[in-house]
Structure formats: C-alpha cells, structure tokens
Amino acid sequence: MAAIAPQTITYSPAYTLVPTYECFNRCTYCNFRHDPGKSEWLSIDQARTRLRGLQSQAVIEILILSGEVHPKSLRRRAWVQRIYDLCALALEMGFLPHTNVGPLSFEEMLYLKQVNVSMGLMLEQLTPKLLKTVHRYAPSKRPAVRLQQLIWAGKLQIPFTTGLLLGIGETEADWWQTLSAIAHIHQQWGHIQEVILQPHQTGRTQIESRDQLSFERFKTAILMAHEILPPDITLQIPPNLVNPQAALLTCLELGARDIGGIGPKDEVNPDYPHLQQPALSRLLAAHGWQLKPRLPVYPQYDDWLSAHLRPAINQWRQRLTNPAFASVSALSSPSY
Ligand SMILES: O=c1nc2n(C[C@H](O)[C@H](O)[C@H](O)CO)c3cc(O)ccc3cc-2c(=O)[nH]1
Ligand SMILES: C[C@H]1O[C@@H](n2cnc3c(N)ncnc32)[C@H](O)[C@@H]1O
Ligand code: SF4
C-alpha cells in the first residue's frame, strides 16, 4: 500500500523588533502598550546588536510590531523614519522585514513598501459597536480606517496579512461580515496572502479583563473562515493561543494551514510562550502533518516587489528548496 504523503503546515521563523511600546490608543485588552513619552524607542545600534546574534540562527523574518504615535503628532515623522531605518537594517543584515504598526497614510505605506517584503494590519472586527466598548479609547480601531488600509495595500501591490481578533464582544454574524469584507477586497486586488484568526487572550497587564473565547466558538470561526475566504488565502492560527496542544491538531483538521511567526517571545501575548519549532514539528509529525518554514512573502507575490528586495528573497527561497535545508532540522534551532 502506498504511503500517504504528509500534508504541509507552514510557519515563519521570526524575531520581533518593537520600535516603541508607546501607544496613543488604549485598547482595553492590550498587554503591550506603554503611555506615550514613558518608553524609550529602540535605537538602530540596539537593533543591530540583537540582529547580529540572530545571523547564525534559523531566523528569516523580522516582524516590526509597534505601538502608535498619533498621526498629527510632531513625532510621527521620526517614528515612521525609525520604522524605515529598522527595516533597512534588517534587510542589510540578510533578514526579510514584515511591518505591522497600525494604520498608515497612503504616503507612509508607499515609503515603507520599499523596505518590506510584506506588511500587515489586523482588520479585527468591522462592527462599530466595539467603539463603545473595548475600543472606546482607540481611534486607530475605527473600522473605516482599517478597511482603507486593506484597499491601499491592494492599490500599492503590497502582499498583505490581515485577520480577525476574536472574543472581544462581537457576535458570529459580525465574523461573517468581517470575513466577507476581506474576501471582497481580495477579489478586487488579489493581495491578501493570509488571514490570522487571533483569539483574544487575557494577559497580566490589560486594563479590563474579559472571558476568553471558548474552543467551541474558535472552531466555528475556523469553519466559517474556511467557507468564506477564497482558497488562495492561507488561514493562520497562533499555536501558543490554542490550548491544550491537542486542540491545535483540530484547528488543522478544520482548515488552518499556517501557524505564523514562531520566535522566542510573542510580544503581543507575552504570557503565552510559543512551543519552539522542534517541539511543534514533533507534535505535528506524530499526527501526519509536516511543518515547513516559509518566507514572510508568499511566492505568487515576488514579482510585486522592487528589484532591490529580490536578491534576498531569491536567496532565502533557494536555501529553503535546497535539499540540505528542505528539512526543518537542517536549519539550526534558534537559541537566542
Ligand atoms: O508573533 C506574532 N506575530 C504576529 N504577526 C506576525 C505573523 O505571525 C507573521 O509574521 C506573518 O505570518 C508573516 O507572514 C502578525 C502579523 C500581522 O501582519 C498582523 C498581526 C500579527 C499578529 C501577530 C501576533 O500576535 N504575534
Ligand atoms: C498585533 C495584533 O495583536 C492583537 N492583539 C492585541 N492584544 C491582544 C490580546 N490580548 N490577545 C490577542 N491578540 C491581541 C491586535 O489585533 C493587534 O492588531
Ligand atoms: S492593541 Fe495596538 S493599538 Fe491597541 S493599545 Fe495595543 S499597541 Fe495600541
């Protein structure tokens, strides 16, 4: 009897740099933000030291994840410049940057496109009722502002990651609306490479606690996303937020095909450490799934990126297809 080939599940070997934790929004579920002016920005020298330590390790993506400086603040230009400089440094040191720093103007997106292989912004939920609850102090979470980002990313041909934040006071009908909007925008521009289903998790420093999404409801969300989203969008789930670990396998059976960035620290949910790649590979392999590393840009979008980004991407693609690197174990496991 012929052996059944294992199905592939992908992940991005990633490390997160945080330009600043300061944020002018106060989402009530956030465990990341600091008050404006109370947190040092990450300097280029500090970033260089950290990235140098990663060069011999299995890290491909540098996720630039940030708290936000108000669009009208006099410090906004410096903040965007710092993000640009961090991306340029990561590229120069052989990594592939992916920026997710909240809503940007069209010009800011165009500027950052030059130094990113893909970008992202969670749509979270379209329903305006959350502006009266978890987002009452978060102007960046206005649904129209976030929808506009997805449209601009399409117009600018930026390979894009978006997603839903689940369990923040929305209904299943709200999920349907949000997923349909993503599918609709993708139909027009074809730029959404992946959609994250991110269950809200309570952490230690958020200003308002709330019930966590039950696994039953999470399964419903995965099934719904699988039904609504076109097959060329990969469904991503964060493995550290799905408990117990056996539940991760159920998510894969329901259609999730990617487990996102795996690195030493989940900056958004620091209270939920990631299983590292070897343990995840073993867990999946025991149930017939093969875990494979991928780049933060999916291959169908390589042509959209400017010529100076291509050599680094081609090099990484070659490293991943080279038989010596084809198995995950051939990449040295990060010890950070
Ligand atoms: O480690 C994390 N990575 C997050 N990532 C990164 C993601 O796991 C990977 O970097 C992408 O899959 C790159 O293709 C995000 C990226 C986005 O564009 C939007 C939201 C997120 C959210 C998280 C997150 O909560 N934790
Ligand atoms: C990077 C993304 O992380 C999400 N995010 C912010 N706080 C939490 C939390 N406590 N649990 C899960 N996801 C969260 C937001 O949707 C943001 O856009
Ligand atoms: S979730 Fe993002 S926008 Fe909201 S407070 Fe936290 S850092 Fe700021």
TrEMBL record:
Keyword Lyase: yes
Residues that hold [4Fe-4S] cluster according to the record: 23, 27, 30
Catalyzed reactions: 5-amino-5-(4-hydroxybenzyl)-6-(D-ribitylimino)-5,6-dihydrouracil + S-adenosyl-L-methionine = 7,8-didemethyl-8-hydroxy-5-deazariboflavin + 5'-deoxyadenosine + L-methionine + NH4(+) + H(+)
Top class in the EC scheme: lyase
EC number: 4.3.1.32
Coiled coil segments of this chain: none
Radical SAM core domain boundaries: 9-232
Cofactor binding note: Binds 1 [4Fe-4S] cluster. The cluster is coordinated with 3 cysteines and an exchangeable S-adenosyl-L-methionine.
SMART domains: Elp3
Residues of the signal peptide: none
Functional pathway: Cofactor biosynthesis; coenzyme F0 biosynthesis
InterPro entries on file: Aldolase_TIM, CofG_family, Elp3/MiaA/NifB-like_rSAM, F420, rSAM, rSAM_sf
Keywords of this entry: 4Fe-4S, Iron, Iron-sulfur, Lyase, Metal-binding, S-adenosyl-L-methionine
Family indicated by similarity: Belongs to the radical SAM superfamily. CofG family.
Name of the protein in its database record: 7,8-didemethyl-8-hydroxy-5-deazariboflavin synthase
